[in-house]
Amino acid sequence: MKIYTRGGDKGKTGIHGGERVDKDNIRIEANGCLDELNSMLGVVRAFLPEDDELQVPLFRIQKEMMVVMSHVATPSVKRNINPNILPTDLAEFCEQQMDALTARMTASTHFLLPGGTLASSHLHLARTLARRAERRLWTLHREDAVPEEILIFVNRLSDLLFVMARFEMYRQGAEEERWQNFLYKRKGGAK
Question: What pTM, to 2 d.p., does this model score?
């Protein structure tokens, strides 16, 4: 089977259920953002040793992201024919991971500059890709309902990626670069 079909040469692409839509359709844009995010998670995993404790949760997230993308690619009226089962515990999984990692670190009191180690920097980039995907998913949601589990998962995932970036810095003994205190924690306007 050839990788190219020439079917997209006129600016259209197929979605789950057989319909063809414009390549810049919001459904394709939202899925493209999720695809970028998933690819970045693969980059993060490539920077980490194979036995690193973040490998297992990141691997699960990557696998589940493929299921999420299949549901985003499916119009709501045809979602019942999607053979991929959308997990209902993705947000809870992210929360459990965050709780376990934050219990091992000091609390964050400042806005942080993204960066640090290669893995931390790429986790921050993945976080921003998750936020963009979330924005595109909400745009799609206004046109055609996106399952609530997906919207909540992507929101929670961006938080988890922030925590993972901090955790990577913490375990490497690297200093986080601070911008300023959280506004609501300031006393007397001091930075």
Answer: 0.84
